[in-house]
Design a protein that fits this description.
By secondary structure, this protein is of the alpha/beta class. Helix content is about 35%, strand content about 15%. It has helices at about 10-20, 30-35, 60-70, 90-100, 125-150, 160-175, 195-200, 220-225, and strands at about 1-5, 25-30, 45-50, 75-85, 105-110, 185, 205, 210-215, 230-235. A five-stranded parallel beta sheet has the order 2-1-3-4-5, sandwiched between helices. Strands 6-9 form a two-stranded antiparallel sheet. Strands 7-8 form a two-stranded antiparallel sheet. The relative contact order is 0.17.
């Protein structure tokens, strides 16, 4: 089974590619988390988690979902993380998670995809984004081949900088940066509620046909990128910046 969590479509696209190539079932963790559903029942022998990189680790909401879910036996667990730059030493913390859940850890692959974190960085325009994805395709193919052959995924070398990014910086990043206080919608908002529907944490409610953000946010950037009128901003950091959504796969039109 291929589990994925995706705010703007990168993970969804990679998961879709893997699922089609391996003839494996897809499971959207966005929907599982949004609908308060944990995993239970028969556990597949092979689980593939395709995830974005949040502060140089897997998203906390996904880690919490895995920890709370009930898996049986010792399933193989492959992790495929996409990022705008690097995943740091994320694998160290994934190995720890796998030990807790008694998963057989089969590696963590890093795939560089277009940057989408416009709360801090600039996203590429459509042409540049497609070029970045084209460069990522051979890595996606390699990951598929390694999983199909039952090999452990090739990992990037862990270094001092990665240890800092995934360790103390991650710990500081969440309370300091990851919140919804700076999201707002301007007068271009048409009250379509696409942002609320896209939020995997149900953190957005519509009040007088305008979105209101609450205190649960994982900075997935789904809301700000799905808005059809580009009415949503994040403070002043997002003003005038491209909104990136993966141009391929099931989320491109959502």
């Amino acid at each position: 089974m291929v589990f994925y969590f995706s705010g703007t479509g990168n993970s969804a696209y990679i998961a879709e590619r893997i699922s089609q190539a391996l003839d494996d079932r897809l499971c959207s963790l966005n929907q599982e988390i949004k609908n308060h559903r944990l995993f239970k029942g028969k556990t597949p022998k092979r689980m593939i988690f395709v995830l974005p990189t949040y502060a140089w680790r897997i998203p906390k909401v996904v880690e919490e979902w895995i920890l709370k879910s009930r898996f049986y036996g010792t399933p193989e667990a492959y992790f495929v993380m996409n990022c705008g730059g690097e995943i740091g030493n994320a694998a160290k913390y994934i190995r720890k998670l796998c030990r807790k859940k008694e998963f057989l850890y089969r590696g963590c692959a890093e795939i560089v995809m277009p940057e989408n974190y416009i709360a801090m960085f600039s996203a590429p325009d459509e042409t540049e984004a497609k070029e970045i994805i084209a460069k990522a395709e051979p890595k996606i193919d390699a990951v598929i081949e390694q999983i199909a052959e039952g090999k452990t995924l090739e990992e990037e070398k862990e270094g001092f900088m990665g240890a800092a990014l995934s360790g103390p910086i991650n710990i500081l990043f969440y309370p300091a940066i990851v919140h919804a206080k700076k999201f707002w919608a301007d007068d271009q908002c048409i009250g379509c509620r696409k942002c609320a529907d896209a939020c995997p944490l149900n953190n957005i409610t519509m009040e007088e046909r305008k979105p209101k953000w609450h205190n649960k946010c994982t900075h997935c950037m789904a809301c700000i990128t799905v808005c059809p009128t580009k009415a949503i901003e994040y403070g002043k950091k997002s003003t005038g910046k491209p909104r990136y959504r993966c141009p391929y796969g099931q989320m491109k039109d959502r």
